[in-house]
Amino acid sequence: MFCISDPAERFICSQPWFGGLGAQLQQQVRASVRQAEGAKGEVMLPTGSPAQGWHAVLSGLVMLRSPPRRTRASAFIGIPDGEWFGEGTALKGEPLQYEVVALRPTRLLCLPLPVFNHLYDTSLAFTQYLAQHMNLRLGQAMTMIEAGRTRSAEHRVALQLSRLFWRRQRRLNLTQEELGQLAGLSRQTINRVLQALAAEGIVTLDFGRVAILDDAALEAYLARTAAA
């Protein structure tokens, strides 16, 4: 069991659905959560691995992507710290259809499948949270599909910086290399677009990190590049 000072327990106890669980079930959830660590570039969960449960990024950043074919792979989405992923795999109990790659040193949590299923069957707060979370992921996926097919590099970079993917953070601990991997663009292209955004006063760049200065201006930029 985690001690009270453990970041994993603090994370679990802060979840919106946790407070509504009975004391015995809270204890079960806290005791069951597992942790894993991965280095930058490590495949933490390979394609085809059996469903283990529901995962969260405790610290770091991961990318969900299709497995490489002929040395190329397609990124689906980046998952920053504090976010859950893999609910579809957990609900269906099927092998993982993508791989999970650490873009920097990362710690993952896993709520094991039996506990996940029990919460899904018995906790209204949990199922409501899960439905909201899946709706968010669907919106992200549809937006990314459209952007990948029809939008410019400028739009794709701005989209990856938007609140659609970074709901709680506006000073992003995100390097140009990481942004390029998420957007599927070269580092040179990322640098060019970020310099243009900085020139418009939308972002600042500090040692390769990105801070969003003006969300309204970023939304306007997204609308402008979408129309183009």
Walkthrough of the structure:
Helices cover 45% and strands 21% of the residues. It has nine helices and eleven strands. Strands 1-8-3-6 form a four-stranded antiparallel beta sheet. The model has no long low-confidence stretch (mean pLDDT 84).
Question: How would you sum up this structure in a few lines?
Answer:
With about 230 residues, the protein is an alpha+beta fold.
Report the mean per-residue pLDDT as an integer. Answer: 84
Helical percent range?
Answer: 40-55%
- Major sheet characteristics: 4 strands, antiparallel
Return the string of H and E elements.
HHEEEEEEHEEHHHEHHEEH
Number of helices in the DSSP assignment? 9
Q: Count the strands?
A: 11
- Please, what is the oligomeric state? single chain
Q: State the low-pLDDT regions, or none.
A: none
Category from helices, strands and their pairing: alpha+beta
Given the C-alpha coordinates, what overall shape results? globular
Strand order of the largest sheet: 1-8-3-6
Estimate what percentage of residues fall within beta strands: 15-25%
Termini, distance in Å? 54 Å
Using only CA atoms, what is the Rg?
18 Å
Please supply descriptive tags for the structure shown above.
228 residues, alpha+beta, four-stranded antiparallel β-sheet, 45% helix, 21% strand, globular
Question: Secondary-structure blueprint of this entry?
Answer:
Elements (H helix, E strand, L loop, with lengths): L6 H7 L9 H10 L1 E5 L4 E3 L7 E7 L1 E5 L9 E6 L3 E2 L1 H6 L6 E4 L3 E7 H10 L1 H27 L2 H9 L9 E2 L3 H8 L3 H13 L3 E4 L2 E4 L2 H13 L1
Antiparallel strand pairs: 1-8, 2-7, 3-6, 3-8, 4-5, 4-7, 9-11, 10-11
